[in-house]
Amino acid sequence: MSYALYQDDTPDSVKNSKGLHLITQNTPNGQKVQIMLEELADAYGTTWDTTMINIMTNEQKKDWFLRLDPNGRIPVLVDNTASPPFTVMETSAELLYLLKFADKKDIFGFTDELERSEALQWLFFWHGSGAPYQGQYHHFGKYAKEKIPYAIERYHNETLRVFGVLEIRLSGKYTGEPRDYLAGKGKGKYSVADIGTWPWVKGWESSGFTTEEMDEFPHMKKWIARIAERPATKRGIGEKYVQK
Question: Is the pTM of this model over 0.85?
Answer without folding.
Answer: yes
